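so im writing up the methods section and need the 3-methyl-2-oxobutanoate hydroxymethyltransferase record in one place, dumping it here so i stop losing it
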Amino acid sequence: RKTAPMPEDIRAMKGGTPIVSLTAYTTPMAQMMDGHCDFVLVGDSVGMVLHGLPSTLGVTMEMMILHGKAVARGLTRAMMVVDMPFGSYEESPQQAFANAALLMAETGAGAVKLEGGRHMAETIAFLVARGVPVMAHIGLTPQSINTLGGYKVQGRGDAAEALMADARAVCDAGAFSVVLEKVPAALADQITAEIAIPTIGIGASAACDGQILVVDDMLGLFTAFKPKFVKRYAALGSDGEAAIESYAEDVRTRAFPGPEHVFADKVPS
Ligand code: KIV
Ligand code: NA
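--- predicted struct ---
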């Protein structure tokens, strides 16, 4: 593909070749994935992954704009979606529109993502009617960690019906796709089969219309904890620490810098 897909192109991938996506927070990471991902999410996971925050609750509009601008500079072929941070959209559709418009105008994002099912349907419809493509996010919604009572699997047993209703609601409200986080595989399969928009799984099912992972998790850069749904494709964290250990040893033994790293010149007599 030569140009970035639009949200409607992502919607049209329903039921086809799985949609590939990762999070990114910086220009070089965005450049690494630009040729391989259909869309890149500037996730509010940036707070935990890059800023050392204990949850996503402390992430601000300012942080999302700064990282969104950085990611945009690294993308030419993948679409960019930016997360709406906690507190920037829940109060009213009007508040959500003002902040979504700011995120799109400042970063050039083609769409925003927000957390919530039935209770956010009115807001999603309000945004879509005013030119803001919305990716929804249901199941485990980390911004609600304090009311959910932990990062546990959502939609088990009797809660399955409610999650199915959330999926239908965000689809009917006009979302162009929906992230399903940490839900039983059979329920993810059922939602994927039933709703008309692509499901993007994270801890969901291989049958989802697409998959997403936090890039620092799959590269082994974020190692504070590893959710079951993360597959590590590299160990950049431990590789990086080993490299730093070698550097420290080289400096202390004067093995670095070597002759090839320094500049020759005449010494004044
Ligand atoms: O912030 C994030 O990284 C996300 C993805 C895990 C879907 O919302
Ligand atoms: Na997020």
